[in-house]
Amino acid sequence: MIIGTLGSHSALQILHGAKKEGFQTAVVADKKREDFYRNFSFIDNILSYDSLDNAVIQINKMKDNGILIPHGSLVEYLGKERVDKIQTKIFGNRKIFEWEADQKKKMELLRKSHIKIPEIFERVEDVDRLVIVKLNGAKGGKGYFLAKNKSEVKEGISNLINSKMIKSEEEVIIQEFVIGVPMYFQFFYSYMLNRTEIFGIDIRYETNIDGLRRLPYNYIKETNPSPTFVVVGNIPAVARESLLPVALEYANNFVKTTKELVPPGIIGPFCLESIVTDNMDIVVFEFSGRIVAGTNLYVNGSPYSWLYWDEPMSMGRRIAREIKIANEKDKLNLVVS
């Protein structure tokens, strides 16, 4: 059996973990990145493409004996229509992609999971506090902007339309900007073991919002630079242990709700992207229904994955372990779609 993935995002740890579990591996990579992936001995096959349509053709070469591991670049790069043409089995629940690509449906899922979320403003006219305006899809924060009143929201949306990042106001979500510490809680839901595992925590390193912190106060006051939120890296974090029961409760609620609304529900990795406030509330402002790039921090295992497995367990390897267990029990159909 071959485990493959698209050459981007978290491909290296996915394929490294698959090789650790004894699988053949394949990366479907843009020809411009082909030489890069040749550096790694755990990658057995490089299926290169020169167009996005050709990428789908290359993925489908694995349809008889392979499983594709999705990550944030899959739908964002290929687009929903191309992903729908993928015939190779995909690890996890494909139907989650549609919910993850729509910010409003995302928040509906979180709300129905009894998870604390920021206030959402359905109308620009209702904005009465600092907000963050977000675009749909896994864009890594590109195009997001802050606004402190409805006039700034209107101006920012108009700029997005003029730059052709969106076509209309309906493509954004206006969300209260919660003050606190960002913590992105990573989980893995195992169908084989019927449990939700806390995997790790990361903080996104964003430009230029993080870079602005290094500027002198007087310069910021005089120039009033606009913050942006493009993710360029990740920083590891460990939470106070008293936060973990709430985080795990949220995760279990999320698993239960996805089973009801998007059957068979979440399968494998997911992330609850959160702010922890000064009164220790965990406020979840978004979720990712697949592996997140923050898990790249933990190729040798996270502080939490060691507690479950007592061995180096990256998220890539955890995915491969789940596939391996399912295959040995002749229940592969429960973890792929």
UniProtKB/TrEMBL annotation:
Gene of this entry: purP
Coiled-coil intervals: none
Catalytic reaction annotation: 5-amino-1-(5-phospho-beta-D-ribosyl)imidazole-4-carboxamide + formate + ATP = 5-formamido-1-(5-phospho-D-ribosyl)imidazole-4-carboxamide + ADP + phosphate
EC number(s) per entry: 6.3.4.23
GO MF terms, alphabetically ordered: ATP binding; ligase activity, forming carbon-nitrogen bonds; magnesium ion binding
Domain ATP-grasp: 94-324
GO process annotations (BP): 'de novo' IMP biosynthetic process
Similarity comment: family membership: Belongs to the phosphohexose mutase family.
Pathway given in the UniProt record: Purine metabolism; IMP biosynthesis via de novo pathway; 5-formamido-1-(5-phospho-D-ribosyl)imidazole-4-carboxamide from 5-amino-1-(5-phospho-D-ribosyl)imidazole-4-carboxamide (formate route): step 1/1
Cofactor(s) required, per the database record: Mn(2+); Mg(2+)
Keywords recorded for this protein, A-Z: ATP-binding, Ligase, Magnesium, Manganese, Metal-binding, Nucleotide-binding, Purine biosynthesis
PANTHER family registered for this protein in UniProt: 5-FORMAMINOIMIDAZOLE-4-CARBOXAMIDE-1-(BETA)-D-RIBOFURANOSYL 5'-MONOPHOSPHATE SYNTHETASE, 5-FORMAMINOIMIDAZOLE-4-CARBOXAMIDE-1-(BETA)-D-RIBOFURANOSYL 5'-MONOPHOSPHATE SYNTHETASE-RELATED
Role this protein plays: Catalyzes the ATP- and formate-dependent formylation of 5-aminoimidazole-4-carboxamide-1-beta-d-ribofuranosyl 5'-monophosphate (AICAR) to 5-formaminoimidazole-4-carboxamide-1-beta-d-ribofuranosyl 5'-monophosphate (FAICAR) in the absence of folates.
Residues reported to bind 5-amino-1-(5-phospho-beta-D-ribosyl)imidazole-4-carboxamide: H9, S73, N234
Binding annotation for ATP: E206
Name of the protein described by the UniProt record: 5-formaminoimidazole-4-carboxamide-1-(beta)-D-ribofuranosyl 5'-monophosphate synthetase
